[in-house]
Amino acid sequence: MLIPPRIVITKKCPRCQLRYKRKEKQCTHCGGLSDYEVEKLKARYQDEHKGNAQLGRWFLFAAIILIIAIVII
Q: Is residue 8 part of a domain?
């Protein structure tokens, strides 16, 4: 039997731009952080996003090479 995934309603924090559960009173990412710490948090998430995007491009490139190799053989 297949169980459907649970839907979690989130909202975007105006301070750090990350998403958190709507039922929380404050952002779970930046609540209690200073402005400097929030800027560091945002920079870290942006760096992770860039790294993930680059990894995705490498997988796409590898898939294209693999498809070309299969077609040639």
A: no
Domains in the chain, number: 1
Which tens digit of pLDDT belongs to each residue from 7-25?
889 999 999 999 999 999 9
The residue with tokens 């839907």 is 7
Contact 30, 18 (CB under 8 A): yes
Q: Which of 25, 22, 27 is nearest to 10 (CA)?
A: 22
What's the whole-number mean pLDDT along residues 21-50? 92
Question: How far are the Cα atoms of 17, 24, 26 from residue 12, in angstroms, in the given order?
Answer: 6, 12, 11
